[in-house]
Design brief:
Number of domains: 1
Structural class: alpha+beta
CATH architecture: 2-Layer Sandwich
Shape: globular
Number of strands: 13
Strand content: 15-25%
Distance between the termini: 25 Å
CATH topology: archaeoglobus fulgidus dsm 4304 fold
Number of helices: 9
Helix content: 25-40%
Radius of gyration: 22 Å
Length: about 325
């Protein structure tokens, strides 16, 4: 093992040196980095996140979801008020279904539906908010798209309609819609620069604290993209992204957004100011607060399952899988 650790360390060191050299070339080019303007925060920013828990038993799968939205109001860069929607301790929702291959996408579809439904209900209430941040990508991940023949395709199509409704209402009401991706695996910018790397790793060496990239199209061919092609063309053409670096020691954040309300510079300025958690971690504070209130603890999950078993009585369908009940570990 010692030798393998040594070999891996040497390989990582070589790759890091090579990446830094390429990053310096890109940085000197000056086309991919720009300073973010510093503006006072005098607006309201909301973040919505969802809690998610799943339990596979012998005959069924249980999925428990919960979502919470937090609205934070700033004046002169200071947080002066915050509130929760629907409240600070939302009730969870329970779903159950047979364990079958065609249901493999179902848990993620349920999770996304929970968050988007909460965001829609919030916007329909005509809130006095300037920016709404979703946790993760602003559109469904292609990996979570069911096949045409799947039983889940209808639910996916309904989810896309909810996303599009959220997009249109945010535009109509002048609310800037954003998706903040905590750990992006995208390589699009790196590929454009001829580099084999995750974007946020490459850009960690290119961007300085307080800098961002230009605006990029989410897809150069929205009509052929596996997910954007499911949306109306006028919507899919508005989906953009950029990277920004609010703090020194954390990799850049990928920010996806629906263009048409704020310009990219204003978006970057706001997100930078609400994401300075520490010198080694950056993420929008409204999303972090929403996560704390949406997260499902193991204790909560166990309590729900215990209630099901108590009411259903002895049933082999509800028994734990054998691997989870071994008497010896």
């Amino acid at each position: 093992m010692d030798r393998e650790i040594e070999k891996l360390s040497e390989r990582l060191e070589r790759e890091e040196i090579s990446l830094k050299e390429k990053a310096n070339e890109i940085k000197e080019d000056g086309k991919i980095s720009m300073d973010i303007s510093k503006e006072k925060l005098d607006l309201s920013v909301s973040g919505v996140d969802g809690g998610f828990s799943r339990k596979k038993l012998r005959g069924i799968e249980l999925v428990i979801t919960r979502s919470c939205l937090v609205e934070m109001t700033y004046e002169d860069n200071k947080l002066i008020n915050h509130s929760y929607f629907p409240d600070s301790n939302p009730s969870p929702n329970l779903y159950s279904y047979d364990v079958r291959e065609e249901n493999s996408k179902k848990p993620q579809i349920l999770r996304m539906n929970e968050e988007i439904t909460t965001a829609l209900k919030y916007i329909n209430g005509d809130p006095n908010v300037d920016m709404l941040i979703l946790d993760g990508s602003i559109v469904p991940n292609p990996h979570n798209k069911p096949k045409e023949s799947s039983e889940e395709r209808e639910n996916y199509d309904l989810l896309v309609k909810k996303y599009e409704e959220l997009f249109r209402k945010s535009l109509d009401k002048g609310i800037q819609l954003i998706g903040a991706v905590e750990d992006s695996k995208s390589r699009k910018v790196s590929k454009k620069k001829g580099v084999n790397s995750l974007d946020n790793i490459l850009l960690h060496h290119v961007l300085d604290k307080g800098q961002r990239t230009p605006e990029f199209n989410y897809s150069d061919e929205p009509g052929k993209h596996p997910v954007l092609s499911d949306f109306s063309m006028d919507i899919s053409n508005r989906i953009k992204f950029m990277y920004l670096k609010p703090v020194e020691e954390d990799t850049p954040l990928r920010i996806e957004y629906l263009s048409g309300t704020m310009n990219s510079e204003k978006i970057a300025s706001v997100v930078q100011e609400v994401s300075k958690i520490s010198n080694s971690y950056s993420y929008p504070v409204p999303l972090m607060e929403a996560d704390l209130h949406a997260k499902l603890t193991e204790k909560e999950t166990d309590l729900i399952i215990r209630r099901i078993k108590n009411q259903a009585g002895e049933n082999p369908v509800l028994m734990e899988k054998r691997r989870n009940t071994r008497p010896f570990h």
